[in-house]
Amino acid sequence: MKKPQKKSSRNTKAPLSPADEARRKYRRGRVYVRTGQALMIVGGLIAIVHWLAHIEAFGPGQPPGWLDLVAGYPMAAVLIVIGAIVAGQKPK
């Protein structure tokens, strides 16, 4: 005779208490904000370095045209906008 098999409890999660749920949402929100802020800082640094390259702070000569289109102000703007969007997300 076979013994009845026990159901595995690995796949079931215990419901979180309201305090634990609030703590989880707060931490997730902080991660979104900090990640967004980091992206905005990187975008700002790219813009500053690009501006310094245009005023020839790193030596004579302007950056090549393709670099100006790809890694200059447009990339800085994209990173700042994406960072702002990520920082403004509400945790689910």
What labels describe this entry?
92 residues, mainly alpha
Fold and architecture overview:
It is a single chain. The protein has helices at residues 18-54, 65-70, 73-87. By secondary structure, the protein is an all-alpha fold. It has one domain (19-87). Helix 1 packs antiparallel against helix 3 (73-87).
How is this fold's topology laid out?
Blueprint: H1 18-54, H2 65-70, H3 73-87
Helix pairs in contact: 1-3
Helix amount: 55-70%
Major sheet: size, sense and barrel closure? Answer: none
Based on Cα principal axes, name the global outline. Answer: elongated
β-strand number: 0
Number of domains: 1
In short:
This protein is an all-alpha fold. Helices cover 63% and strands 0% of the residues. The chain is built from three helices and no strands.
